[in-house]
Structures are given as structure tokens and as C-alpha cells.
Design brief:
This protein is α+β, with helices and mostly antiparallel strands and 258 residues long. It has 2 domains: 4-207, Bira Bifunctional Protein, Domain 2 (BirA Bifunctional Protein, domain 2, 2-Layer Sandwich), CATH 3.30.930; 211-256, SH3 type barrels (Roll). It has helices spanning 4-8, 29-38, 88-105, 156-159, 165-169, 175-194, 201-208; strands spanning 19-26, 45-52, 71-77, 110-112, 116-119, 122-134, 137-147, 215-219, 224-232, 238-242, 245-249, 253-256.
């Protein structure tokens, strides 16, 4: 893995990436960032690892990535926002990471609700937001991202829907440069977000998402909902027009019905 010094060199950010915690192997960068959050570490700290032994994904799933090929990192933030706005932080992270990947590869990156980034219609990045709430406010938020960068092969069950920048573009990417670009983009977007203002984030996320107006199914724990994806509501829920009216979902796996 790169050293803290290498990661800091040339990174001109105000908040995000002011401090690095770098590991060859760790259980989960999100778990580590939460420990830092509990210990009172200042916001903007970044935990980065070459390999995770217990990388975690959404809905209790595992996040598996080959050592040394990908970007696995978490950012600790302390925005002054209410519990109700917390879900919007996933949109903030998605827009920041999408902008950064676009800058490096020169191709458009899509957002898929709730936390995926797609290139050529396949997943290249997953984002996992974990919060600590205190007295109806966010005490801290951990934004974890796994970007599939240079990994060239994936197990069959992943390669159906997942891919990497290298597979899609035929090129390898410098992971340090990509991480620094991500942190710069997040840093640019963060000041209003820190005050609870997501006005710049939501329209860009919506523009990057191609599912609106299309028929979708949302697979939830023990039921499936079908309808037309209409919009996002004020707290990042997905609004679906079903046979019985508008319904808002906050978790689940969405697929566009073709
Ligand atoms: C998902 O698509 O389900 C979200 C995956 C998030 C994975 C990243 S990898 C870095 C960070 N640490 C973790 O344990 N998970 C996130």
C-alpha cells in the first residue's frame, strides 16, 4: 500500500484527507473508521487498505476484493445534519466518486439507487454509509467505498453485474491518483453538505440515474414491489408509482425491467 506521505503529497484539500490511516490488511476500513469516530478523531480522516478480511457491503453482505488491485477506503465525517438527512450522504459520496472516476477515465459514470456506481451498465463501485446518531443528530458518518480498479477477473456470481475500470477500459489505473481525485471531489462538494445543504447534490445524482420513468422491481427482504421509478424524495427514498399509488422505499435491490 502507499504510505501516508505519498497519499498526502500533492493533495490540496481543506477537510477530506487531512489525516490518513493506511493498512496492508485490515478487517474493514469502515469498522476502523467507526472506531476512530468513537475515539473522537477529527473529520476528514481517511482509512485505506490494500485488502480487507471482513469487507462489508449493504444489507449484511460481504464485499470481496482481490488484494492490491482495488480501492478500499472510508472517510470519517461529522456533518451537522439530522437523522432524517443522513441517507443523503450516500448521494453526496456517489456524486463525488462518480465525478472523480469520470475525470480519470473520460467516460460517464451512472448512479444506481441506492449506493452503486455503474460503468457501461455494470457495477464498478459500492458505497456503504454507516452513522452514529446522538439526540436525533448525526454524531459522525463513515462513508466507505469499494472501487473495482485493476482487478481483471471476478467470480461468476459477481461478474454478471460487476466489473472494473480495467476490464471496461482495457487500461490500468494508478490507485493513488484515483484516490486523491476522489478525496478532492468530495472535499469540493462537502462544505454545504456539512451544513445540511444537499441542493447541489440531489439534482446531479438524479441526472446520473437512468432508471426514472422506467418500470422497476424492488426486491426487499420478504417482498417484491413493482412499478415505475418516479423520483427521489427529500431524504433519498426512492418513490415508485405502483398500482395502488406512490410508495417510497428506503432499502432493497432495484432492477429495471426490460
Ligand atoms: C455495497 O455495494 O454493498 C457497498 C460496498 C462497500 C464496500 C466498501 S470497501 C471499503 C469499505 N469498508 C467496508 O467494509 N465496506 C466499504
Amino acid at each position: 500500500m502507499y504510505s501516508k506521505e505519498e497519499l498526502s503529497q500533492g493533495l490540496d484539500t481543506a477537510i477530506v484527507g487531512k489525516k490518513f490511516f493506511v493498512f496492508d490488511t485490515i478487517d474493514s476500513t469502515n469498522a476502523c473508521a467507526r472506531t476512530l469516530g468513537d475515539a473522537g478523531t477529527t473529520e476528514g480522516a481517511v482509512v485505506v487498505a490494500d485488502f480487507q478480511t471482513s469487507g462489508r457491503g449493504r444489507l449484511g453482505r460481504a464485499w470481496i476484493a482481490e488484494p492490491g488491485e482495488n480501492l478500499l477506503f472510508s472517510v470519517l465525517l461529522r456533518p451537522r445534519i439530522s437523522i432524517a438527512s443522513a441517507g443523503l450522504l450516500t448521494l453526496f459520496a456517489s456524486v463525488g466518486v462518480a465525478r472523480a472516476i469520470e475525470r480519470r477515465i473520460g467516460e460517464p459514470v451512472e448512479c444506481k439507487w441506492p449506493n452503486d456506481l455503474l460503468l457501461h451498465g455494470k457495477k464498478i463501485c459500492g458505497i456503504l454509509l454507516e452513522n452514529l446518531f446522538q439526540q436525533s443528530q448525526v454524531a459522525y458518518a463513515v462513508i466507505g467505498a469499494g472501487i473495482n480498479v485493476n482487478q481483471r477477473t471476478f467470480p461468476d456470481e459477481i461478474s454478471l453485474r460487476g466489473t472494473s475500470l480495467a476490464i471496461e477500459t482495457g487500461k490500468s489505473f494508478d490507485r493513488k491518483e484515483l484516490l486523491q481525485t476522489v478525496l478532492s471531489e468530495l472535499d469540493v462538494l462537502y462544505p454545504p453538505v456539512q451544513q445540511g445543504n444537499f441542493n447541489a447534490i440531489v439534482p446531479e445524482w438524479i441526472k446520473r440515474c437512468t432508471m426514472f420513468g422506467k418500470p422497476v422491481t424492488v426486491q426487499q427482504q420478504n417482498h417484491t414491489m413493482s412499478g415505475i421509478a418516479r423520483t427521489l424524495n427529500h431524504d433519498a427514498g426512492l418513490v415508485i408509482e405502483t398500482g395502488t399509488g406512490l410508495q417510497t422505499v428506503y432499502a432493497g435491490d432495484v432492477s429495471v425491467v426490460s
